[in-house]
Design a protein that fits this description.
Length: about 260
């Protein structure tokens, strides 16, 4: 199954990435991706775009050539309190907020600290998706995180890039996360974490893990544009209401899908 939704991409605004919005739109059209999120790194990263970059995302069109664009961020979890590097009313202007651990902002410490920081980010109400929680550099109490994510309606990401170009050794953790998510009713999403447009919508390795644990496709946010948009609307993102109308008749991948 070719999924039509990707929640995690980076552009040249994050200077260690290599594609523009235009590049992503062209590849999205080629691959049949109907909705993707532009989620450059939060401003506390050394080579991330300025804070104003995220404030001005409102200039991006909602749709280009039939492809929907979500205005987002991959923020940095900064400390044990779960604070991120984007805040206040500015958060309400974004369509989607991802957040995760990144070494230059929050160096690894110990399992208890990582777990508390991640759960506090989940509880904050500011984060929709936790990125690459299976990173072996940041061990966590997987069951505790999955329970908290289920309770607060936050999605956990199975990050395809972690198996191909970064965060080597993530497979076992991600399998355990997917299994715990299945058990506790936690929402999962696959993210390409593309730093070049060619990998947009690339979920092969992530999907293998989803399939291995028989995680129900009906709870996977990639299953349709409407599924993701409904999730974001339920989390209070009023900004996505105009996109929901465009995608409310799309096909939804259900439990019986052949993935």
């Amino acid at each position: 199954m070719q999924y039509q939704v990707d929640t995690h991409t980076h552009t040249v605004a994050s200077s260690h990435a290599y594609s523009t919005i235009h590049d992503y739109i062209a590849v999205a059209k080629q691959k049949g991706i109907r909705l993707f999120a532009n989620t450059d790194h939060g401003p506390d990263m050394a080579d991330a775009p300025h804070f104003w970059h995220f404030v001005n995302l409102r200039v991006l069109p909602r749709m280009v050539d039939g492809v929907g664009i979500l205005r987002g961020i991959e923020a940095n979890i900064k400390n044990i309190d779960g604070e991120i590097d984007f805040f206040g009313d500015y958060l309400k202007q974004l369509d989607i907020v991802l957040a995760g651990f990144h070494e230059p902002v929050y160096p690894p410490s110990d399992k208890a600290t990582h777990t508390k920081a991640m759960i506090n980010a989940i509880k904050s109400g500011n984060v929709d998706i936790i990125t690459h929680p299976g990173n072996p550099a940041y061990p966590i109490d997987i069951e505790a995180v999955a329970r908290a994510a289920a309770e607060y309606g936050v999605a956990l990401e199975i990050n395809n890039s972690s198996f191909e170009v970064s965060r080597k050794g993530s497979e076992a953790n991600c399998t355990a996360i997917a299994q715990a998510a299945k058990e506790f009713g936690t929402i999962l999403v696959m993210g390409s974490d593309s730093h070049v447009a060619f990998s947009l919508g690339g979920f092969t390795r992530a999907q293998a893990i989803i399939d291995e644990v028989a995680y129900p496709p009906s709870r996977l946010l990639n299953r349709s544009p409407s599924a993701l948009l409904a999730f974001l609307a339920a989390r209070g993102h009023e900004t996505v209401s105009d996109l929901i109308a465009l995608f409310n008749d799309d096909d939804d991948i259900g439990d019986g899908a052949n993935n």
